[in-house]
Backbone:
């Protein structure tokens, strides 16, 4: 092989390591709705809720949790597939998204303690499972055949939080431990286009877990002068990952998140039915653009409403939402969502069932989620 | 690291922020706990402490601070009633107070506080009921009448916290206000119709349908006895109480079915002479133990002669012939000697004769309550019920209230008020005749106001 060809081979390999030069991976790396109630209203009430899930989203909400409760969500983790045609370095792409595997993406437990409420939360913070295929991809002196690549990422956040209310305000803080898993498996064959000779196969298999620690703080207020309105704000620090020598080039820091939320309630005077509508904004910052899974600063916007009907000895919350989710890094595509969900809360029972679905406006299958919340023990 | 430092600083700042504490809720909870333990002085103190922090009672639910997404009500929407609670606690403390002056002071304080609540528009069934109880204990009939008038003149819509009321009081208030008892058996008036034979004082057999479904009866208390007398027959030229015998049977059935009396402990005497009544009473007293409760009901003719009340026998031909009558105190004497707690009810016309009327005599010795079916100077009235059976208004109301209460521990004060209201206002399952007949409220001697039969 001449030197020029060798250089081309190296360029292909380097190209395979570079960040994808296209924007068709729907981005759920940062703005991922892990719990079903959040999912149904596009995350609009994440900062103004007061339930066990507040341990991770806004610990201030824990200050109003007056009885022990646990909840979990079972939902899909969407995948994507990209097919390359033409040039390997600058391919023409066609893609699909998939429903993906199902998993418990959120688990939370909160219990009142003296002076406040302690909460524990596990949630999937971000997810990526992208497969790429292509063959006979020309690139100068060489041709790439039988190219397959699978890039996976999942960040799980474990948060222990404490929230405390004082009248119309509540405050909370927590410690966040992140576990991030990155995996990249790639196979390709280099062919001399002139004679069809196999110039070599390349296989890459990189994976690893990384751990990092961060913090979260939050504040909620339902002003006495405006009792039907709640404001919330929370801040989670960026989390730098450690012990990830093999995968640091892919992903090394979970972006921080500054979130604002607003919710307002309208009671139906003639019945117990009521409407809550809310808006939220999430600013993701502190990520690293120069990684394979790069993260730029980005803002997500969420709007949702929840109308609760009291019938048949139960409460039936109906939820709608819309989430504006721009891409958070090079090679990703935004994933705006229209969401819907409903819940079932029988009166005088300890459990609540929530169901949600989210439809990406760019196309692709609907995300589905099922959540259960259960009250345990007596109120404080 | 910078982010962690920032968060640490913010945490410290917010933790040291001044707080708005729900200490009124803590004081109120402490009051409820004290009330549950029967520590009424402590309960009053805590209710007043809660009122100092949050002054006004509130009928509606108290919304707790919190996000609009998860609205919370204090104590599941219970009313906030520290002022009512404080007054009620004073009333309860008074009932167990030994010193007369202190007791009276507490009662008057409670009455004043409850009256203040009513004047502020906080008109609840509970407030009126307790206020009336206070005036019963104070034996202030004028104020009782005033409370009754206030009660009738205006809507009663205010809700108070009832968590600290006794079950008997709650039941009495429900019946008094016409509210359904959530625990009431809907089929309580049905019986299997087993026929038994009841022998009256003249050994004349009669049959009646006794309650025959033991499963629907209130649990029997073996120390409860009853002497039920109905003299429909008389040799008097006027004032015959035609329904007296029917009343006796109605009262018997009500006691057995709804008030926890064993049939074997209920002595029914109908159309009897004074001697027969005397004999049956003595026999009943003989069967009683030392710590018994006695329910006495008499329907028939009675007179007050020289300050003493007399019950007429069927052979009484004159209103002054005491030889054919039995004195009221004499009738109760065997039971007084046994130390029984006596609850007596007289459905007797009370015309003034020579300036006197039946029911004037209040026994001094013995633990006795006494209630008359009509006020001084008035007669007694019977009305037909379903099936055409005529019963006296007083007997009907007694039966109706017992049926609604369904308790083997009927507090005399509440019971008296309920019968009064039933006869006057027709609230408790009976379409009363309003002003046709007005009973007196129980006069209690040597018995606590909360005594029960």
Residues:
């Amino acid at each position: 092989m001449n030197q020029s060809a060798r250089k081309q081979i190296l360029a292909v390999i380097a190209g395979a390591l570079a960040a994808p030069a296209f924007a068709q991976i729907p981005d759920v790396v940062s703005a991922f709705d892990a719990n079903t109630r959040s999912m149904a209203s596009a995350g609009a009430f994440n900062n103004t809720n007061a339930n066990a899930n507040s341990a991770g989203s806004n610990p201030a909400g824990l200050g109003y949790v007056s009885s022990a409760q646990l909840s979990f969500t079972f939902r899909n983790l969407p995948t994507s597939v990209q097919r390359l045609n033409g040039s390997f370095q600058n391919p023409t792409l066609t893609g699909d998204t998939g429903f993906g595997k199902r998993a418990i993406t959120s688990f939370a437990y909160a219990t009142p303690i003296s002076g406040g409420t302690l909460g524990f939360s596990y949630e999937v913070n971000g997810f990526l499972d992208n497969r790429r295929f292509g063959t006979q991809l020309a690139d100068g002196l060489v041709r790439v055949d039988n190219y397959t690549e699978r890039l996976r990422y999942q960040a799980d956040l474990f948060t222990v939080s404490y929230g405390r209310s004082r009248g119309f305000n509540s405050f909370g803080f927590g410690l966040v431990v992140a576990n991030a898993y990155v995996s990249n498996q790639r196979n390709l064959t280099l062919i001399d286009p002139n004679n069809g000779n196999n110039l070599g196969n390349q296989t890459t298999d990189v994976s690893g877990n990384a751990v990092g620690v961060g913090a979260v703080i939050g504040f909620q207020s339902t002003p006495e002068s405006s009792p039907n309105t709640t404001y919330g704000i929370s801040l989670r620090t960026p989390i730098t990952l450690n012990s990830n020598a093999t995968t640091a080039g892919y992903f090394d820091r979970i972006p921080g998140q500054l979130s604002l939320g607003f919710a307002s309630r309208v009671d139906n005077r003639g019945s117990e039915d009521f409407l809550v509508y809310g808006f939220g904004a999430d600013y993701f910052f502190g990520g690293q653009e120069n990684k394979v899974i790069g993260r730029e600063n980005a803002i997500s916007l969420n709007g949702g409403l929840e109308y609760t009907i009291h019938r048949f000895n139960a409460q039936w919350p109906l939820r709608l939402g819309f989430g504006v989710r721009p891409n958070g890094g090079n090679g990703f595509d935004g994933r705006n969502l229209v969401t819907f969900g409903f819940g079932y809360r029988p009166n005088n029972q300890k459990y609540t069932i929530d169901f949600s679905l989210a439809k990406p406006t760019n196309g692709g299958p609907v995300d589905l989620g099922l959540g259960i919340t259960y009250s345990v023990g007596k109120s404080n | 690291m910078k982010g962690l430092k920032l968060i640490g600083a913010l945490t410290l700042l917010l933790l040291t922020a001044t707080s708005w504490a729900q200490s009124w809720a803590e004081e109120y909870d402490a009051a409820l706990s004290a009330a549950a333990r029967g520590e009424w002085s402590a309960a009053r103190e805590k209710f007043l402490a809660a009122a100092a922090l949050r002054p006004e009672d509130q009928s509606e639910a108290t919304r707790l601070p919190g996000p609009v997404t998860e609205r919370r009500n204090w104590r599941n929407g219970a009313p906030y009633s520290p002022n009512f609670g404080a007054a009620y606690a004073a009333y309860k403390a008074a009932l167990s107070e030994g010193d007369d002056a202190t007791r009276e002071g507490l009662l008057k304080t409670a009455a004043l506080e409850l009256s203040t609540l009513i004047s502020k528009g906080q008109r609840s069934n509970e407030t009126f009921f307790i206020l009336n109880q206070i005036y019963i204990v104070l034996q202030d009939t004028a104020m009782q009448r005033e409370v009754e008038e206030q009660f009738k003149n205006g809507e009663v819509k205010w809700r108070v916290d009832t968590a600290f009321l006794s079950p008997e009081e709650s039941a009495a208030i429900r019946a008094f206000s016409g509210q359904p008892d959530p625990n009431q058996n809907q089929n309580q008036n049905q019986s299997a119709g087993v026929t038994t034979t009841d022998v009256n004082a003249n050994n004349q057999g009669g049959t009646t349908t006794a309650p025959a479904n033991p499963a629907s009866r209130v649990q029997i208390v073996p120390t409860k006895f009853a002497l039920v007398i109905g003299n429909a027959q008389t040799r008097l030229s006027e004032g015959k109480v035609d329904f007296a015998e029917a009343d006796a049977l109605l009262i018997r059935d009500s006691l057995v079915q709804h008030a926890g009396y064993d049939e074997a402990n209920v002595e029914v005497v109908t159309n009897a002479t004074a001697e027969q009544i005397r004999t049956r009473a003595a026999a009943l007293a003989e069967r009683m133990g030392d710590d018994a409760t006695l329910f006495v009901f008499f329907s028939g003719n009675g007179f007050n002669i020289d300050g003493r009340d007399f019950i007429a026998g069927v052979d009484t031909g004159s209103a002054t012939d005491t030889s054919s009558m039995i004195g009221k105190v004499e009738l109760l004497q065997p039971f007084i000697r046994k130390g029984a707690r006596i609850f007596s009810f007289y459905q007797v016309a009370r015309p003034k004769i020579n300036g006197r009327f039946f029911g004037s005599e209040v026994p001094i010795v013995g633990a006795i309550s006494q209630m008359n079916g009509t006020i001084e100077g008035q007669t007694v009235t019977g009305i037909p019920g379903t099936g055409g059976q005529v019963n006296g208004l007083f007997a009907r109301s007694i039966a109706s209230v017992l049926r609604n209460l369904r308790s083997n521990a009927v507090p005399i004060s509440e019971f008296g008020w309920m019968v009064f209201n039933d006869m006057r206002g027709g609230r408790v399952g009976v379409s009363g005749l309003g002003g046709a007949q007005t009973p007196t409220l129980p006069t209690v001697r040597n018995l606590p106001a909360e005594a029960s039969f």
Notes: The CA atoms of residues 17 and 292 of chain A lie 8 Å apart.
